[in-house]
């Protein structure tokens, strides 16, 4: 990215322009490369983090995958935001594993959180996924 502009509209939405060049500083004129780049940007903007709740036998495990930037840094405060969302949902944590994995030529920071359902109060599955996603995205 050689240059970018960000616009906030009066209706609450936003737009941004990115000017991207090749490593040699020239424009990207190959239509296939342009389409691939646009597709990748759409995917990253649409779902910047992945959140899923899966069954592990009698237990439930929350999986959160966050892409690692090319600089090698992950998004700060991910674990804080996950625990805050679970606290707001009155859902306890039994154990956590955090690791980095290569998936499709991309490094991801993956949080595996085994939920504690010992108190008998069960939050619906989609409420947990939505609640965690909202806090991670800054919507709550």
| Gyration radius from CA atoms, angstroms | 19 Å
Q: Segments where pLDDT lies below 50 for 5+ residues?
A: none
In helices, the fraction of residues equals: 25-40%
Helix/strand/pairing category? alpha+beta
Number of β-strand runs: 6
How many structural domains does the protein architecture include? 2
Give helix and strand order, one letter per element, not per position.
EEHEEHEEH
* Residues in β-strands, percent: 35-45%
Shape summary: elongated
CATH class of the largest domain: Alpha Beta
Q: What is the number of helical segments per DSSP (H or I, 4+ residues)? A: 3
Mean pLDDT: 86
CATH topology of the largest domain: Alpha-Beta Plaits
Q: Please give the CATH architecture of the largest domain.
A: 2-Layer Sandwich
N-to-C terminal Cα separation, in Å? 30 Å
Enumerate the strands of the largest sheet in spatial order, edge to edge or round the barrel: 3-4-6-5
Largest sheet: 4 strands, antiparallel
Task: Give the name of the CATH superfamily of the largest domain.
Answer: ACT domain
């Amino acid at each position: 990215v050689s240059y970018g502009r960000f616009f906030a509209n009066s209706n609450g939405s936003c737009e941004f322009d990115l000017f991207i060049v090749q490593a040699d500083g020239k424009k990207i004129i190959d239509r296939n490369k342009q389409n691939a780049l646009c597709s990748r940007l759409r995917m990253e903007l649409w779902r910047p983090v992945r959140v899923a709740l899966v069954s592990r036998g009698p237990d439930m495990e929350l999986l959160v995958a966050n892409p690692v930037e090319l600089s090698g840094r992950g998004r700060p405060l991910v674990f804080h935001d996950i625990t805050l969302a679970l606290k707001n949902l009155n859902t306890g944590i039994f154990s956590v594993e955090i690791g980095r994995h290569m998936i499709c030529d991309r490094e991801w920071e993956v949080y595996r959180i085994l939920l504690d359902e010992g108190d008998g109060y069960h939050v619906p599955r989609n409420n947990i996924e939505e609640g965690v996603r909202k806090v991670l995205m800054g919507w709550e």
